Amino acid sequence: MVFSPSYAAMGNDEIMYRKITGIPAAESDSFENSVSVFLKRYPKSKFAPLIILLKAERQKDIDLAIQDYRMIIQKYPSFDGREFCLYRLCQILDLKSKWEELEYETSRALKIYPHGRYSVEFRLMRATSLLMLEDFDACKHECLLITESSHDLEFLARATHLMAEAEKKISGNSKAYITLLRQLVTGFSKSDISPSILFSLGNYYQQKKYNDQAYSAYTDLIKKYPESPESVFAFMAIQSLKKYKPVYVKYLPDNRTIDEADTIDIEPAYQADPVSGDRYYCVIIGPFSKKKDTDSIIRLISDYDESRVVKTGSGYTILLGRFADTDNALSARIRLAEEYGINGSIVLFSKDKSGSYIYGD
Q1: H-only helix segments in 96-152
Q2: Is this structure's pTM higher than 0.85?
């Protein structure tokens, strides 16, 4: 048998590995079969984790990709690409809003790679999970660690924005919160999250009844970032402000704005106590055809005590709150429309041994 010069010094596992990497992405069946044969034939090969990683990156099923990344992380602790696999796993968990799993995996990643290539990204994702899990002090701590260790504009902007959202959860539309918003608006106006920053500022002004400033911030958001998801919400918010006949004014927070803010300004998202049990009213938003379409709205309405995504026959739907009666649900629905321009419907949610049911408005 005559070997080509490129294969002459290779082992059989490397030869097969190179052949697998050359299989076009369109030939998925051939690829999957070859990967299966390789892993059975050479389970301890140094190319095994590379093969599994390639399989994970080509996966169309995101849950199968999670399994592949976790297999590498657990079975190949000395693999050079292990940190990357943890990073990709955490990205998927973030995308799927698996906050408890994301908090666990990012914590593990930071213990293994405290100064690794993706350590800042791990901290940002961990801070996001902590915010969603309502551990606001821990979220702020992670963000502070990022601001102390990174000089990257985007990382600093994202960390400061997360810190601001955590501060709002703790102290409401307070002096500390508007101070962070001013830092964001003046120091990170060129960052990728500038639309989110402007929307947060507009929302602050709207909640404080500073209608001209709110209108101005929303207007600039739409003009500067017309293609951003936030511009849609800004447009709806402007519609709800029109009855006040707002005018465009200077809106960047100044010292007077900060001085007039309360040290603590907590107002519950709604005045009803949450209801326990399997029968309650809630406000429903949707449906959406894709789950990822619900993520920006979940973040937007994070002021509310409880929001969750459920899959129904017509798509993905957001359920907001647990109310004892329709009056309290109506108050939340009105606030949702006035502050965010989001139209929801009131439904009755019921659950028994045979399943869960949603009854219309």
Answers
A1: 99-112, 119-132, 136-149
A2: no
